[in-house]
Request: fold
Amino acid sequence: MKKNDVIDELSRHFPQERLKTRLIDLHAYSSDASFYTLVPKAVVFPASVADIQTLFQIARQCGTSVTFRTGGTSLSGQAVTDGILADISKHWPLVSVERNGDFVRVQPGVTGAAVNHRLRSFGRKIGPDPASIQAAMMGGILSNNSSGMCCGVADNSYHTLSHIKFVLADGSVYDTGTFADYARFEATHLFKGIGHLRRRVMEDVELLSRIRRKYKQKNTVGYSLNAFVDFEHPLDILAHLLIGAEGTLGFIAEAVLHTLPDKPFKSAALLFFDSPRSACDAIPALKDSGAEALEFMDRAALRSIEHLAVAPAFLKELPAQASCILCEYQSDNMDSLKDKLSAASALLSSLPLIYPAEFTSDEKERAIFWKLRKGMYPSVAAVRAKGTSVMLEDIAVPVERLGEAIGSLQELFVKFNYEHAIVFGHAKDGNLHFVVSQSVATPEEIAAFSDFNDALADMVINKYQGALKAEHGTGRQIAPYVAAEWGSAAYEVMKELKRLLDPEGIVNPGVILNEDKNCHLQHLKSLPVVEEEVDKCVECGYCEQSCPSRDFTLTPRQRIVLRRSLSRLQSAGDTATYDAILKDYAYDGMATCAVDGMCATNCPVDINTGELIKRLRRENHSPSANAMALRVARNFRLIELLVKLGLRSGRLINTVLGARTMTRLTSGVRRILPSFPLWTSQLTGPVRVRANRTAAPEAVYFPTCITRMMGRDKEKQDSIADVLLRLAGRAKTALLIPPGLSGSCCGQAFSSKGFAPAYRHTVNATIEKLWEWTGEGKIPVVIDISSCSHSLHTCRPYLTPDNQAKFDGLKIFDSLEFAMDILLPRLSVKKMKGKAVFHPVCSLHKMGTYKKLEELAARTVENPVIPFTSGCCGMAGDRGFYYPGLTAAACRQEGAEAAAQAATGYYSTGKTCEMALSEAAGANYRSIFYLLDEVSSNG
Reply:
């Protein structure tokens, strides 16, 4: 059946908001974190088991396939398809903690980090701990049988599964937590078929021995054949076969997992050895001593991070073969931890270390160790040649042969000219990761890639009897090697299992089992050289959870994927598809990006997609548009007066005709002029900030233009300026409010829209004023909105040389810094009773002051809450007025979490952010200065 027929059939069953068929959407979903790319026929967002059954029915009817995807962080090509792609990340968020935290019930569309957050108050966590846990969702964690740094084999997804609810290709639904489903399953042909396969396995002595041997170490190649050995009832067998099946046998709708103690007391050290062999020889004894984590790093891996500011200086002087193990002990209490370290002391002193081991329980020092360990992948990714892919591979070998295997890997790197390859991994489990850079743009490069894969397979399978995939899943990449690793008997069992459960081959075909022995060389993702930000991207998807537009239009990864797609289409001469995507990219990719930069906080290679979009906006502005923006900047005093007049007039209209009048009026105008701003219920009015004369001021107070234009509190209390002045008086801190404030601005409105000349004019004018007001930098400046502080902190590149010198002489305090560093020490504080909710604006993350908000909250409130779902609100200064759907989508989760707290107060450090969160939570968010005013008295 043709693509349009599939779309027509889907349209009859799924509403428009849960079905994407535009070319821009299809290409946005063509990539996952692997080095494969396929363009789906349609993207669907099922919201129930009934929807899943409908999808299977449509796939059978239309002769196409269904692939399920959650976080898209898989590395082996199991989450891309040219059939129907079902995005499960939007409507499957259930997390239910059960039996006092001993179990947790999850749906597939929630991240592992979110599950652990819910378990934290119980002192528990899930077993799997993949490095991608902040972005990886439970659907993928279960379907790939994820493990990680500490969980080993015993605590992976398979071994911590208690119950599971699933949907098979024929639409049948079973729940192993429901006793009646066992009897119902026994009446099916599947019961007999799986029972027959189990008997085959159990009667084949050689196969039985192979299964038992292979699952003593990490192994995600093929199906989880250990289920035939570990369980007797066919429904239990099937339940565990689904774990690690990569969505090829059915759909996991819900699972109940055993949880583990989350040991809060930890001590870690970096252990340095003269060679990989000597490091690996120490692993069995370290493991026996109770070490929870043993992370290996070879010399090349250490070299990749020795430039980091937190790296020990001696890393640069290590011998050529030096290796390191990050060793960490964990326990439920400090006494027990000390006992573990004491018991291990004799072993540690006997190790052939080239530097003394110094264990630390200090959280900051431990964080540095883990930052070094986790910084290796991004360090290699960042320096790779443009146009090459970063391939993060993982294998497993017997622990006792780990050192030998590292040597063999390094020999392969030399043979295949992988100059910047590094080796690291979970040494406790014999699980090695390695990173290489590979281009697949030409037939010769693809052939070289094929030869390397063949050589690697021969080494792992034949020399070390290991696993080609320890935890990343088989996918498309290892499918051609499954038979070689498992043998013909096991492979036939796998094929018969697939035929039994999916006889029409509609569930993620081509993954795990594929008769095409070159399938791993097809649909490879070429990476054309596009733009600096784009070229660095490894498409891992870690950025997506922090993006405010992720549930509205596109994510940062998708914006970059589309830039690459446009380049490929242009090279291929496909002008029709190119033009269609480019047209929609103007809104989806450009206009609705908040350019907040939060994507960079989770990006392993520090890409700020917001900066990319701002640059594209700059490049797309016509000379006349730039001239108009510059005219606005030069006449900003008049603009400020007009905005104040407009807000006063609007408030008067609402007072006379009803509170929603202006919202209805502006909504009507937007139907004709979509670029017209929307009046929201959170808009207040201007405040008058009068200049004062102070004999010996300690700081200059610069009320931002947002404060001046709309700083009135919604509850008609004093303005933020009034409150700050009162606090300063209480703290005996004299503030100067200079004359001539009107028309002064940080320039954020121009910067975010890409109007560089207007931004340049604005910040130069403002820095000159600040220089004058502060007596040429003699006293600091206080800014009352964090985003404005950040805008000024980062304006230096746009300043003239003279103003750069002035900028360097200025001290600019953000409101949070001023509150914590100046006001709080001078005030007497009585903590607010009950709960208070805090929203950390994006700028706090970017300025590195997030911890100050946590500290302020702890010092002023008995029960402070920073929502786990807090993120960018999408306002981006004023963008939320023009694209209200962006802020509504961005704030939905945090607003719901905040509203559920029923708190006494809600606080933040940015007026427009406070407006967005107030709308979402139905509560009045205000500046932290209001909180300080409520809880403080004279010091």
Summary: The chain has a mean pLDDT of 93. DSSP finds 42 helices and 26 strands in the chain. The longest helix spans residues 636-657.
